[in-house]
Amino acid sequence: MLIDFKTFYSRLDNIRHLPTLPTIVSEVNGLLQDSDTTLEILCRTIEKDQAIVSKLLSLVNSAFYGFQSKVDSLSNALVLLGFNTIRNAILSLSIIESFSDVKDLEGFEIADFWHHSLEVAVISRKIAEHAKAALPDSSFVAGLLHDTGKVLMLASFQDLFRQIWQSVRRDNLTFLEAEKRLLPVQHPMIGAYLAKKWQLPSDLIQAVKYHHAPQLKSEENKMQMVIYLADRIVNSSSETQVVADQLDLDIDTVPWAAALMDSLAEWYPPLQAEVESACAFFFANN
């Protein structure tokens, strides 16, 4: 081990420049927990951050959503997409922006990292929608978040990250395998720590924490399985059987997941255009 558990968390707790989300995120989250919140109140709150408004309208009018006519106001966007979708769009934009200063390191390309995260996000949304396993837009955010523990390590523990990455390349290991050899905690726990610091909903925190080992005992844990499947699909071949063979879990015990994997060849390939649309937008705006 490069560091013991206590020392690692002590360093984590003492990061001076922990990535933060803009105040608009917590304000919107608070409003959406209030049943008395109206369209006018939500619009007025979001409009305090004109940079976010501009990015939201760009996103709504991008190929990612594919509306045929232009959406020219925040209120129209809220009506068309709904409060929760706009909240999750704000959160997604803010997550990527919060790590905008992180630089590449010796073969670890930040652009590749976000491409992977966005692909997992798009596929997570599709899985949730197709299987009715979780809220699609929340699943998109969870997919985007799932590996943020890696980029937090790169930003704040570059000495440790470098040694892990060297082990990945030298020993032909997965990132998680190298972490288990060298660290007392791994990127899912670190990402969950950050999500908790950001005061994100508990289902998002748990989906990040367990995206390599979903807890299947409760119906409330479906989002964990959604992110797990999406991540494994992206990391594997698009051929159904190859992916199924690489899963760590017996998905036959989860009927909706098994059915989804059986039809993978039908629904997965067309998603690549949506992935590229997401990447084109988010990379252009961050």
Characterise the protein shown here.
- The protein is mainly α.
- The chain has 2 domains: about 20-100, no CATH class; about 100-285, Orthogonal Bundle (Hypothetical protein af1432).
- The chain has helices spanning about 5-15, 25-30, 40-45, 50-60, 75-80, 85-100, 110-130, 135-145, 150-155, 160-170, 175-180, 185-195, 200-210, 220-235, 240-245, 255-260, 265, 270-285.
- Helix 4 packs across helix 6 (about 85-100), helix 7 (about 110-130) packs across helix 18 (about 270-285) and helix 12 packs antiparallel against helix 13 (about 200-210).
- It is globular and about 55 Å long.
- The relative contact order is 0.12.
Q: Ranges with pLDDT <50 over ≥5 residues?
A: 238-242
Query: Helicity level, as a percent range?
Result: 55-70%
Annotated CATH topology of the largest domain: Hypothetical protein af1432
How are helices and strands ordered from N to C?
A: HHHHHHHHHHHHHHHHHH
| Global structural class | mainly alpha
- Please name the CATH architecture of the largest domain: Orthogonal Bundle
Give the CA-based shape: globular
Would you count the extended β strands for me? Answer: 0
Question: What is the CA-CA span between the terminal residues?
Answer: 36 Å
What value does the average pLDDT take?
88
Strand content: under 5%
Count of discrete alpha- or pi-helical segments spanning 4 or more residues: 18
| CATH C-level category of the largest domain | Mainly Alpha
Can you tell me the number of structural domains?
2
CATH superfamily of the largest domain: Hypothetical protein af1432
Largest sheet: none
Radius of gyration: 19 Å
